Amino acid sequence: MPLQVSMQIRFANRQDEAPVRALLESQGAALDLAGADRDLRNLDQNYFGRDGLFIVAEAEGEVVAFAGARRSESDAEILLLNRLNVDKRISLSSDRCGKISGTTDGDTLEANDDSTDSAAIKKRFLAIVQNHAYQMDYKKVVITAD
Q: Is-contact 146 82, C-beta < 8 A?
């Protein structure tokens, strides 16, 4: 049965690194923190320090979704969205009318009847990343996340 939750979207901090990795591992990922997944060891340096952002959705004190985007190493005009993950158990609380609140810009998003909750969260994350790209004068957002 899906979790029924209300969630808050916010910028990640160092304390979120372990919960982000735990979420991936709970979904069967075998993380290589010395290799391909080393960006998850220091979010400040690897995302915020590279003109990017890393955001999490938190429900009842638990990280249940996240997105990370940072400047491309090969083209400074491109923002790469290379992390996007939502806990597969998530379902928005009916008492919140399908709304997700976001502290990054104060907006809320109403989930459409024809979308899944996971899709609504991803849509909100993409909107935040696109807003960041606009604010930082990136010319393009490229999605490399699965």
A: no
C-beta of residue 69 within 8 angstroms of C-beta of residue 80: yes
Is residue 79 within 8 A of residue 72, CB to CB? The reply is: yes
Alpha-carbon gap, residue 4 to 95, rounded angstroms: 10
CATH code, residues 3-143: 3.40.630.30
Question: The pTM is what?
Answer: 0.80
**Nearest-angstrom CA–CA distance, 135 and 15:** 26
What does the DSSP assignment read for 6-36? Answer: --EEEE--GGGHHHHHHHHHHTT----TTTT
DSSP 3-state assignment of 68?
A: strand
Residues of 93-127 as b/e, b for ≥16 C-beta within 10 angstroms? Answer: eeeeebebbbebeeeebebeeeeebbebbbebbbe
**81/72 Cα distance (integer angstroms):** 9
For residue 86 the two structure tokens come to 């939502």
Domain ranges, ordered by start, for the chain: 3-143
Q: What is the pLDDT of residues 67-106, one digit of tens each?
A: 999 999 999 999 999 999 999 887 554 333 333 334 344 4
